[in-house]
Design a protein that fits this description.
By secondary structure, this protein is mainly beta. It has 1 helix and 9 strands, in the order αβββββββββ. The chain is globular.
């Protein structure tokens, strides 16, 4: 029994020192009737960028944005082009001292709207 408690205590202490990678997981769902193109997700510091050439109608994509190089406070930005050639920009959320406050963000692109949900507070 003492061994089991010792092992459990070691695992708990180790988990306190394991640092998860600084960044945020992004999910983008295209709920519109047409594809979206030139999709980019980044921070206001624009140090790392996630790019998708095209997201088809009803398609969902997932990726992790590393924020290792970020140093200041800022927001997240999603930009893309609709088939009507209309460029959309959605700036949302907040990060501080180069670190994400949230674990993930979900964007849902509608016919004429973009909804955003942040969660998984670190």
């Amino acid at each position: 029994m003492k061994k089991a408690i010792s092992i459990l205590l070691i695992l708990i202490l180790n988990s306190c020192f394991i640092e998860s990678e600084n960044g945020i997981k992004v999910e983008i769902k295209n709920n519109s009737d047409t594809p979206i193109t030139n999709v980019e997700f980044t921070t206001s510091e624009n140090l790392e960028v996630i790019r998708f050439d095209k997201i088809e109608s009803k398609e969902t994509v997932n990726e992790f944005l590393s924020m290792k190089k970020n140093q200041s406070d800022g927001a997240y930005s999603l930009t893309f082009t609709r088939t009507s050639e209309k460029k959309e920009v959605s700036s949302n959320g907040y990060y501080t001292n180069g670190g994400s406050l949230d674990k993930w963000v979900k964007y849902t692109v509608g016919v004429d709207s973009i909804s955003v949900v942040f969660s998984g507070i670190r």
